[in-house]
Amino acid sequence: MNAIGPALAVAAGLGGAGSLAGALAPARVRPLAAGVCTAGLGAAGVVAGAAALGGSRYGVWLPGLLPLAGVRLAVDALSGLFLAVAGAVTVAAAVYGIGYASPGGTHDQPPPGAGPDGASPGGHDMAAASPSGGGHDDGVGGSFGVGHASPGGGGRGDAVGGSFRGHPSRGGGGRRDAGAGSFGVGDASPGGGRGDGAGGSFGGHPSPGGGGHDDGAGGSFGVRDASPGGGGRRDGAGGTYGTAYPGGRPAQGIRSRGAQAVLPLFALALLLVPAAASVSTFLLLWELMALTSLLLVLAEHRERPSVGQAGLWYAVMTQLGFVLLLAGLGLFAARAGGESFADLRAGAAGMSPAVRGTVFVATAAAFTSKAGLAPLHAWLPRAHPEAPSHVSALMSAAMVNLGVYGVLRVGFDLLGGGPAWWWLLLTAAGGLSAVYGILQAAMASDLKRLLAYSTSENMGLVVVGAGAAGLFRAAGDEPLAALALAAALLHVVNHSAFKALLFCAAGSVLRATGLRDLDRLGGLRARMPATAGLFAVGALGAVALPPGNGFVSEWLLLQALVHGFAVPGAATAVVLPLAVAVIALSAGLAAAVFVKALGVGFFARPRSEPAARAAESPPAMLAGMGLLAAGCAVLALAPGLLGGPLARAAAAAGPAGGTSLAGAGLSVRLHHTSASLYPLWVALALVAGVAAAAGLARLPARRGRRRDARLWDCGGGAPTPRMAYTATSFAEPLQRVFDDVLAPEQDVHVTPVRESAYLVRRVRFQRLVPDRIEHRLYLPVLTALSRTAARARHLATGSVHLYLAYGLFGLVTVLAVLVVGW
Amino acid sequence: MTSGAYTQLLDLACGVLLLCAVVVLWQRELAVLVRVLAVQGAALAAIAAVLGVHERRWGLLVVAAGVGVLRAGVLPYLLRRALGARTGGAADPPPPAAYRSPYREDVSEARETRPVVNVAASLVTAALLTLLAYAAARPLVALHPTPATRALPVGLAVVLVGFFVLVARRRAIAQVVGFLTLDNGITATAFLAASGVPPIVELGVSFDVLLAVLVLHVLTTRMRAAFGGTDLDDLRELSDR
């Protein structure tokens, strides 16, 4: 009995029902109704995927459903893997989403920081103005500003500020989003009263005239002096906390009718894309997925202006990718003489190498852009952080996978493999984005941006595996190709599990505190113990160290690559060692990244008031994350369960490795290379080792040494949370090491007092780590485009006659071309 | 009807059609333009009638009658009313007595005084456009050379000339005349290429044109009420600067 067809039908039905429920149900039950339908849909996807991985196949042609071509669906083991992954992530994200959209959380309380808003005469005004005045800063960095106010009234205002985030502009002022470590000292000379804002964060006023715009995890902080005696407004100690969510309700957008109606459709599209079996069906579902995800990214557009910007980037890049895909697959279908995948497979062999290469390059560019690979990744670190968190989880753990699926389906299956240069290109892109993604993640201090860049890194690793598989296949070593492909697929599964968990946990933090900025978090372990524990499980998976699930797939990937050294050929001899080095480097950096995310975000003491007042998430959210954590644990301890299914999926993609990878529950054995791994024993040994170490450390303590002594604090007073490591300071050494790669931008502005050049009025220090690829690759294109557009404006003068003349001229030109060209 | 007479009649009707389009470019008096338009409509109806009689499709005669009534009767009548509303219209405030000299008698509204492209250049352009139409239609004629398809370039030329009238003339009434010339060209092309169209299609097209002319009529009146004239160059607000 084939369960795939009924399961897909159930999924489609539940998708429709969920969408209707989201659109029509009253607000109170809307998230629940839509969420339950979405969870059921995901479960149906898991059933279908598991059946396909078990070896059954399914194909159907519904000619009446779509004009001209009809809908063609087919599920094999490769589709089944992606179906099951998307389904599982959907279940967890839907359960999580029910809790996420439910009322409650800090954000339904009035915005924090109703503190004494200083009425100190002669105080000062802190402005978040971009230092480059109207420029556009983008990147990660910190900045530091010291300001002095001239003497005014009496008293003293002193504020030492932690990281700082301005209000989004209230009227065209300076605007900052997603700040990183910035540090400001404002010293108001004799003002009214004394306020000490140590450890506080400043909410800056928008600068009245500074049209600056900081985007990304960049930080700039300015303390502006008010004119002496002017009624400057003081803001600082206990003052207004500007948060990323000035409206204070992050879940408002996702609760809306539109978002709840679109979410089940998005989940359905995620399930059906891998099941599509003709070009028209595939493109239709692909576009449905892109559109619904775009709508979901924009769900919170009322709360932050940066959402609109992110949505624009995402829309443009995803549609450009779609155009490439349309061109590539259209060419393929035209040359193959049919648009169903079976026709493509049959026709691919007869095509000329140039056409095959064109098809591969066009589709691979589109698919790797969807997967967030390096040169085409610019949308990912923007769109993923701005989406509601369970949507981020779906996008990062299920949608980007489909980019990999597309590469595998077209490159391996439909085109039937190709020459080595295809795969070298793919491996290079994968390696580049693995290193670049994790480096940017190391610099990011926005938690969700960090996770988004880490997605780019992991997809890079997966594509390195896929590229290596293609290389091995081109060299004729099928079993090794199957092994590399299986490793890549296993990493897809692992990445989905831990990244969905991490995004959900980040969403819980965001919901509880309103903050994504690691510099201002901290101390959440005590306030949100369950979330902290779940985040730790996810982080363990992401660092690729033994007890985590990421380790197994990266180990497998390294095994495949290292054994590939024996494959003859100059290209492999150069590329494979480099790929191994890239994987090792990215794994090492990933450890630093997630130590930063976990340590700075959850441990130590809270560095801002919202972080100190955080509360644990509702049970539905914890349940969703619990499902994902359980998945991570199973994948980490018993990856052998997936051995057979992975081998079948790899075989469905092409390389007929057969039984190169075998798993018997608890172990992973490679027949080809006689290597094996017992993750459970590794984990047990580690646990035993840690327990032994802890026990040994306690042994000397038995002697009753005094432990409660106060540390000498160098005479500086009790340590404050401001003295703890922030994300920016933690990443600073790495930034120094990779100085040449990251090219941070650093600015020091010293403004002297008007009377004397020796008296410093203001020092501004600013450091940004921009996305270098973006600056070099995208900015020139964008400026050229806007320049052309500005010139084209002169064509539109408002004269009707001129417009009509354009029309006539166009018509006459077309006719003339026809006459001449006939 | 003999084949020779059919060809002669068809060519005569097409010639009148094209000649009317050229006269529209040549003449400046708006009242004359409307009269020329009526003649053109009659020529269009004649094309349909000749085709219908030749092929013995009586449905086409109905179409011809409808086209004749609309394009030679109703539309010119509407335009004449739009012209007439200017002189005695209540919307127009009567000019002060001092200005009521015969020379100031709203001359600018009765004539196309300052066309965007002058008449000589317009006529040369019309000739070039007709040549282009003949050149472009060659492959179409070659597909199935009959007397009707051989006349096809005329329809195309009328379309191009009508479009050029839109570009080259300032007054709103002249614009409407240009638009109708263009539409006559399209209809003629349809008749000649497809040997007539079914009545239901022609009915839809005719209603469309009628509605467009009514809307333009209203717009013209509003323009005159707002600006005192119908020079399209006064409407420059919609620019991207």
UniProtKB/TrEMBL annotation, chain A:
Topology of the protein relative to the lipid bilayer: Multi-pass membrane protein
Lineage: Bacteria, Bacillati, Actinomycetota, Actinomycetes, Kitasatosporales
Subcellular location: Cell membrane; Membrane
Single annotated GO MF: oxidoreductase activity
Pfam families: Proton_antipo_M (PF00361)
BP term (GO), one: ATP synthesis coupled electron transport
Domain of life: Bacteria
GO cellular component: plasma membrane
InterPro entries per the UniProt record, alphabetical: ComplexI-like_HydComp, NADH_UbQ_OxRdtase, ND/Mrp_TM
Main location: membrane
Keyword Oxidoreductase: yes
UniProt biased composition (Gly residues): 140-172, 181-221
The name this protein goes by in its record: Hydrogenase 4 subunit B
Sequence intervals crossing the membrane: 32-51, 81-101, 258-277, 311-334, 354-379, 420-439, 451-474, 480-505, 526-545, 565-598, 619-638, 678-697, 800-820
Organism name: Actinacidiphila bryophytorum
PANTHER family: FORMATE HYDROGENLYASE SUBUNIT 3-RELATED (PTHR42682:SF3), HYDROGENASE-4 COMPONENT F (PTHR42682)
Domain NADH:quinone oxidoreductase/Mrp antiporter transmembrane: 277-563
Chain residue ranges for the region called Disordered: 103-244
UniProtKB/TrEMBL annotation, chain B:
Domain of life: Bacteria
Membrane spanning stretches: 6-25, 32-52, 58-79, 116-136, 148-166, 173-194, 200-219
Record's keyword annotation contains Transmembrane helix: yes
Keywords recorded for this protein, A-Z: Cell membrane, Membrane, Oxidoreductase, Transmembrane, Transmembrane helix
Stored InterPro entries: HyfE-like
Localization per record: Cell membrane
EC number: 1.-.-.-
Entry GO CC: plasma membrane
Bilayer topology: Multi-pass membrane protein
Protein name as catalogued: Hydrogenase-4 component E
Source organism per UniProt: Actinacidiphila bryophytorum
